[in-house]
Amino acid sequence: MNDFLIVDFTDEEIEFMKHKGFNASKKLDGDLACDIVDELGNNDIGIAADIITKITTNKNW
């Protein structure tokens, strides 16, 4: 995985992650990406599933 991933998150997805305690943006640190996937993995439905998919299917993952 690269140090950073460029992910096309929606504003709603970024807001969702902020409510979960993650300071995420469209330029996502690799370690933070792993933390987000680990945290949201237990609730992988709806918007959480969309976020996980965008991260784990990123070409730099």
Distance between the termini: 5 Å
> Biggest β-sheet: count, sense, barrel?
2 strands, antiparallel
Helical region count? 3
**Gyration radius, in Å:** 10 Å
Q: How many extended strands? A: 2
Any low-confidence stretches, pLDDT <50, length ≥5? none
Q: Give the helix/strand class.
A: mainly alpha
**Shape, please?**
globular
- Kindly estimate the percentage of residues that lie in beta strands according to DSSP: 5-15%
Question: Mean pLDDT score, rounded?
Answer: 92
Could you give the order of the helices and strands? EHEHH
- Strands of the widest sheet, in order across it, are 1-2
Helix content: 40-55%
The domain tally reads 1
General description of the model:
This protein has helices spanning 11-19, 30-40, 46-56, and strands at residues 4-6, 27-29. By secondary structure, the protein is mainly alpha-helical. It has one domain (4-56). Strands 1-2 form a two-stranded antiparallel ribbon. Helix 2 runs antiparallel to helix 3. The chain starts with a strand and ends in a 5-residue tail after the last helix. The mean pLDDT is 92.
